[in-house]
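Incident log, support desk, overnight shift.

02:14 A customer reports that sequence design results differ from what the structure should imply. Their input is reproduced verbatim below. On-call engineer (initials T.W.) acknowledged and began investigating.
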């Protein structure tokens, strides 16, 4: 049994209404003579009302290439990462030196030494802390990160593990690129970070041996990973001289409709559960068409994904950090009845899905 002790989401201070971002990104992506109607319609259809960005809007035209964008990624990622980890430690009552494993994930920048290594000293992590920096999982990494923490803590049941996600999607926007994929990315993705702390079954925060340390969060019951063969071009990056150029297949919602329902139902059946038994669906906000596909294939009531839709509107799609923000909101705003099952799920490049069965 893995116990989730605390979840913290953080955002950059620069917040803009969607209309402001639409106008600014039009100047970056479109030639002056191009009709802006298509871009405006794409931004409106994203159902994102506002987003937080890594940099002030006026800074983006100054980024002349991948090097400058990646330098900005490292600078902002360190700041947001430190804020997220400091906050989750304060929330949990644990100390930085208690952490035995750190999994860091991002798909919007590159750093070596990696971000968690650069943060180890300022945060006060032990010199012998185990580190696993992860790149390439994309939006699925928030759920996959929880699953990998669970795997580790199963073998180290008295230990503490940290998941840190930092995604600065705005820094990957391709200038002078009017492709539909780039316009969709510019409409949908926001910037943010999140940290999650979990403990193994023998840790005082999970056993109740120390009443002051009993965690209010859910336990992880089981996880499941799935790769869908032949879908490598459905979602991901092409990496070139100008950095990360998004790969986004138009058939993604149909792939979700055809595969996700069967996968989720089989996963639940392994635990003698059905979809109607689940009291909370913690879903990555992949975009309106993807969320409609999730609800339809799982035959969920309209309100089942309410917090996911709200997160999409308030901050956009934060890639791997998004599902952690939705989990935080679920715990704070709509905590399910104790003892009931929940499902946390996300989708990402591969094409892949990750499922986590929770017990509240």
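02:41 Re-run completed on a clean worker. Output:
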């Amino acid at each position: 049994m893995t116990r989730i002790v605390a979840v913290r989401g953080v955002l950059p201070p620069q917040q803009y209404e969607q209309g402001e971002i639409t106008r600014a990104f039009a100047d970056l992506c479109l030639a002056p003579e191009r009709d802006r109607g298509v871009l405006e319609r794409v931004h409106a259809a994203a159902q994102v009302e506002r987003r937080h960005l890594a940099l002030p809007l006026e800074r983006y035209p100054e980024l002349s290439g991948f090097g400058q964008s990646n330098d900005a990624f490292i600078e902002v990622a360190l700041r947001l990462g430190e804020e997220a980890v400091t906050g989750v430690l304060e929330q949990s009552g644990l100390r930085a030196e208690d952490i035995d494993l750190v999994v860091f994930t991002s798909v919007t920048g590159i750093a070596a030494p990696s971000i968690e290594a650069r943060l180890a000293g300022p945060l006060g992590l032990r010199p012998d802390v185990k580190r696993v920096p992860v790149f390439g999982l994309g939006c699925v990494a928030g759920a996959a990160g929880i699953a990998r923490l669970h795997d580790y803590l199963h073998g180290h049941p008295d230990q503490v593990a940290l998941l840190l996600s930092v995604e600065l999607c705005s820094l990957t926007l391709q200038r002078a690129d009017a492709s539909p994929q780039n316009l969709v990315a510019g409409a949908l993705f926001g910037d943010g970070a999140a940290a999650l702390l979990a403990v193994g079954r023998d840790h005082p925060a999970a056993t109740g041996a120390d009443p002051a340390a009993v965690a209010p969060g859910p336990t992880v019951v089981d996880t499941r990973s799935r790769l869908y063969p032949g879908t490598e071009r459905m979602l991901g990056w092409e990496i070139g001289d100008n950095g990360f150029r998004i790969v986004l297949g138009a058939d993604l919602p149909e792939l979700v409709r055809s595969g996700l329902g069967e996968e989720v139902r089989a996963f639940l059946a392994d635990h003698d559960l059905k979809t109607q038994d689940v009291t909370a669906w913690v879903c990555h906000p992949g975009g309106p068409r993807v969320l409609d596909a999730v609800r339809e294939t799982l035959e969920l009531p309209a309100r089942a994904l309410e917090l996911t839709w709200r997160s999409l509107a308030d901050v956009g799609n934060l890639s791997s950090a998004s599902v952690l923000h939705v989990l935080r909101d679920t715990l704070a705003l709509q905590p399910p009845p104790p003892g009931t099952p929940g499902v946390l799920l996300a989708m990402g490049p591969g094409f892949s899905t990750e499922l986590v069965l929770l017990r509240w």
